[in-house]
């Protein structure tokens, strides 16, 4: 396998195997390649997860990249003052990002890593920033998207839409400010749902309290019956002991009389 193939393999391994495998590769590598291999950093979890999207889910990864390139080219046209239907490119890109994020979450679950909020936020930043910011499949840290100001500043230097896509990344759009009326309605709905749930819980608790009281009574009766049964067993055991002693006495008397014959 070529050195490039060996390095690709490193970034496909589980994170726990990366460093030992890199050290092993370093031992076998030609002297002129050792510094390059030593410089390979172990990815953190978000970067590793996006790398696995590239290696294991290439169709999903490639679709994300294509929709990102179209989106960036469209924004470039907008900045130049041309009329562009942004929704026609934003929606496919958003769908591609969501699909990629779902696949990454599955990859993390299968690998045993928790898809925490912090991890997924870094993953989303990286997915939004693709393509760019590193060699595909070999990321070591999440990508940090640039804002639209960066696009405006450098769009003049991009000779083609593809060139633009290679050098520009986008930050996630800020969520819109909530409408006070909508927020109030949402708050009322949330309170109504919470009150309903509280009533359901109280009703369920009352039912469980009744069941618990009945179960405790049944337990008391069962314990009393067991105590009666234990006393009966003790009486029976004592009676057995007395009768065994009586049998032993009679047998001794019988043996003694027979010896006198």
Describe this structure in words.
The structure is a single chain. 74% of the residues lie in helices and 0% in strands. It is built from ten helices and no strands. It has helices at 3-10, 15-28, 34-38, 45-56, 58-79, 87-111, 117-129, 148-154, 161-167, 180-260. It starts with a helix and ends with a helix. Residues 152-156 and 158-176 have low confidence and may be disordered.
Task: Summarize model confidence as the mean pLDDT.
Answer: 83
Gross geometry: elongated
Could you describe the largest sheet, including whether it forms a barrel?
A: none
Number of strand elements: 0
Query: Helix content range of the residues, please?
Result: over 70%
**Count, helices:** 10
Computed over alpha carbons, the radius of gyration is 38 Å
The chain-level structural class is: mainly alpha
The total domain count is: 2
Encode the helix/strand succession as letters. Answer: HHHHHHHHHH
Strand content: under 5%
Q: How many angstroms does the end-to-end distance come to?
A: 107 Å
Unreliable stretches, pLDDT < 50, 5 or more residues? 152-156, 158-176
